[in-house]
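Open question from group meeting: does this chain pack into something compact, or does most of it stay loose? Before anyone orders reagents, we agreed to write out a predicted structure and look at it together. Recording both the input and the output here so the notebook holds the full record.
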Amino acid sequence: MNLIKTYQFKVVLIGESGVGKTCLAIRLTKDLFQQVHVSTIGSSFYTKIFSFKENEEIKLEIWDTAGQERYNSLTRMYFRDAVGAICVYDITDKNTFFEAKKRIQELKNDLPDTTILLIGNKVDVKDQRKVKYEEAAEYAKENEFLFYESSAKSGENVEESFKALASLLNQNNQKSKKEDNIDISFNQKPQKKWKMLLNYSNSIL
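C-alpha cells returned:
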C-alpha cells in the first residue's frame, strides 16, 4: 500500500470587503454560492486538498481575512507563516483594484517571498466591467504574480486558480529543498518566473 505524501501550505485571502473573498472560499471548498453573508470579522478558516499524483496531495489552509480598513491591523496578524496569498478585487469596481495593489504592497513588506495569486472576481457580470483584463494582467506580469479572472457565482476559474497556486507553492517548496543540497558554485541562469507562470495558467490542469 502506497503512503500518500501531503504537503501543507498556509495561504491568506486579502482584499476589500465585498469583493467576494468568502464566496470564493465557499465555492472552492463546498461548491456552493452564498448570495448573502455577514462580513468577515478577523478571519475564517477553510481547507482544500488537491491531488496531483496518485500518492501526492497538496493541502491549502486558507485564512479568509476581514476586508474592512478598521480590521487591518488584526488581519495582518494572520500573515504570519503564510507562504501564499490570494488577493481579490471586483472587476466592476475600479477602487477595489487600487486597494488590491495597496494590500499586496503591505503583504510584501511583511512577507517579501510570498507567492501571490491575483483574482479579478465577478466575471459573471462582466458587462459592468470597470477594470480591464489587460490592465490587471499587465500588473500581474510586471510583478510576477499568477492571475485569473473568476466568478464565485458561476464557479468559473475558482478551482483552477487555487489549484495553480497550490501547484506553484509545491514546486517552489521542492525547488527550495533541492537548492539546499546543491553546490552553489554551479553557474546556471534561473528560468524566468513569468514564463513559468504563463505555463501554469494554461497547462497544469
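Observations to bring back to the group:
The longest strand covers residues 43-53.
The chain has six helices and six strands.
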